[in-house]
Amino acid sequence: MEAINNFFIENSNVKRINKIENIEVPGKIIYEVLRIINGKPLFLENHLLRMENSFKLINIDYCLDNLKIRRDIEELVRVNDKFEGNIKLTYNINEKIMRIFFIKHSYPSEEMYQNGVKTILYFGERDNPNAKIVNLSFREKVNIKIKESNAYEAILVDRNGYITEGSKSNIFMIKDNILLTSPVKAVLPGVTRSEIIELAIENGIKVQEINLKYSDIKNLDGMFISGTSPKILPINKVDSIKINSNEIINKLIKYYNNRIISYIKSN
């Protein structure tokens, strides 16, 4: 079972976590992972919009109450007395059960932000990249490769040789001072990804969605991972290809951290 701490929320009811019992029953599960900072769910509105979109992509009416979800998250934070970490929202379509619980998290170290991290290429793609639906077999296969390679993340490459996204993140690239990322139709439209694109445009950085072949990685000026846990994390290596640090990435890290501070203060 993924849930940690003492309590989780099930259909707005507080329940104690039984270490033996698996709270996830079989069925198609739509989910979101959010970061809690100072007891506040970061960019909650955007996560719920994406959850609603996942429902639409599998032709199911969105039946959740967003205000109730916010209150449930506040209650989860209160009863567990935990004000930092990651939480997971899951909705089991078969059982019509909404669960919210804390999960284990791993945030990059300061050294990783300064020096970058190693990544690998993984040749494979999700069935429905736009929808955030549990796919354990795909995730397990990728995680095995990541562990074998002692890497931080795997960059997915589709059947046509194009870079799509990370196994649990989005991927950005820099070339000639332009911020590049894969077309939104080919990836899970990450909440952090959207914030980064918005921040780049606001600060005069040109953004382009592009299909980039993995064979062109060697010609890039920089690359980074984006996501709920890593935020903006520079990449220093893809397989055996070394990736340079880049000033645009450093600027985006500063802009994004400031955006987080502003959001938490205003919510």
TrEMBL record:
Key word Protein transport present: no
UniProt entry tagged with the keyword Cell membrane: no
Organism: Clostridium botulinum
Family in the record: Belongs to the class-IV pyridoxal-phosphate-dependent aminotransferase family.
Short name of one Pfam family: Aminotran_4
Domain of life the protein comes from: Bacteria
GO MF term list: transaminase activity
GO terms (BP aspect): amino acid biosynthetic process; carboxylic acid biosynthetic process
GO cellular component: cytosol
Keywords of the record: Aminotransferase, Pyridoxal phosphate, Transferase
InterPro entries per UniProt: Aminotrans_IV, Aminotrans_IV_CS, Aminotransferase-like, BCAT-like_C, BCAT-like_N, Class-IV_PLP-Dep_Aminotrnsfr
Co-factor(s): pyridoxal 5'-phosphate
Protein name according to UniProt: Aminotransferase class IV
